[in-house]
Amino acid sequence: MATTVDAKAIAGALYESLVGTALEQLQGSAAKLAQTGNGDLAQRVNAALPADALPQVRNFLLGLASEGLIDQVGLVAQAFAGLTAGISSHAIDALVTSAVALEPAQQDSIVADLRKRYGDLKATFAVDASLIGGLIIRVGDRVLDNSLRTRLSAVQRNMLTS
């Protein structure tokens, strides 16, 4: 059975494959459309794409053609490449909050431990003196609160309910 980390890695590979294929087809069609002259736009689009083109790419190009923007495909492909370059990293955001500033070696150790559990991540470190001690670690939508403030609050709740 695949773990959450495995599923995310597999989903990332699928995403990169689909986006990469769409980008290749847009770039290839831009070059071919620039070489072809006038004529039926639908025929030009179909001729510019491979037979196994993604339906979304075909429909997108036909939409551009119907709006009179078929000559902009090259610019759109460049802009799409720029967008996908920024998205290709699937790093999870992690926020580590401590009561005092952590030494670089401590930060490295925490990041290494988090990467073992969650895979690729981008860690940010913050200081909150009200924690008194310990850490609060937020990775994606998960929170691990091991702060002294939370522990003392739990003891206080237990004492009040007893």
Runs in which pLDDT lies below 50 for 5 or more consecutive residues are none
Mean pLDDT: 84
Silhouette: rod-shaped
Which sequence of SSEs, written as H and E, runs from N to C?
A: HHHHEHEEEH
Strand order, sheet with most strands:
2-1-3-4
What structural class do you assign from the helix and strand content? alpha+beta
Radius of gyration: 25 Å
Total number of strands = 4
Biggest beta sheet attributes: 4 strands, mixed
**Portion of residues within helices:** 55-70%
- Beta percentage is 5-15%
How far apart are the first and last residues' alpha carbons, in Å? 43 Å
**Number of alpha- plus pi-helical segments:** 6
Q: Give the tally of structural domains.
A: 2
Overview in brief:
By secondary structure, this protein is of the alpha+beta class. The protein is built from six helices and four strands, in the order ααααβαβββα.
